[in-house]
Amino acid sequence: MTVHLPYINQQFNGSIWRMEIDEISDTIFIEIRNDTEKQVSFSSIDLNNGNLNFKDLVTPERWLTGIETAYNGVLLLHNYQSATGPAHRGLTAIDTDGTVLWTNYIYAFDHLTTKGPILYDTHIHPKKLFLIDIKTGIVERIYEPTMLPEIKTNITLPGVLSPDTLPHDALAFPVFGNSVHYLEYNNFRIVSLHALQAGMLKQYLYILDGTVKVYEDLLNNDIQKLQPEAFILHKNRLIYIKNKSELKVLSL
What CA–CA distances, in Å, run from 131 to 5, 114, 165? Predict the structure, then answer.
């Protein structure tokens, strides 16, 4: 079995806040927030070849916007009803090359189907759901659940295991916290764990081929608490974040 070294390795100026994978085009969209400058930006990468579609894209709204969903190569951003509340209102569609396709200030997103996003008009109560064409923003039809099933994702999340289930000679450090994030793919065993070294808490990623370690990376250094799950698997791609600001993708 072969681990292909990261064919995507992108560093961002800020913390990766959210990632969204478009299952139609195999595009990953990244939301980056720079707390110091109060600036949010967006980037897009083709997962099939590692090509960068756009990077550090900003909108007229510097902070109160974020990723809502993505479909057929188009990124859908949301705004907020107010600066102090979590409710979303207003949508902007961004094409693969970073150009704005359309903007609507009263629509809000509900969920994603195999035919596209389901929205509603925030001025109408109770809300009435409808399907739009994500390229144009034009309403196509009233939402019917039997005709518009939700889209299925190819993302697999790791589970939590006891470190006793892993070969101790393959891991360089004793595990801190008595748990690891773990996933199997083909013959690979993907592990994320925490270790306490010289009083510093660190987070590592390992890939084992059976019991042999074939890849490792230091994900976080000198952290204050245990971090959440560090990686996902999308089809045969291992996707993870390093130091909160670096995206890496390996082909397994």
Answer: 40, 11, 47
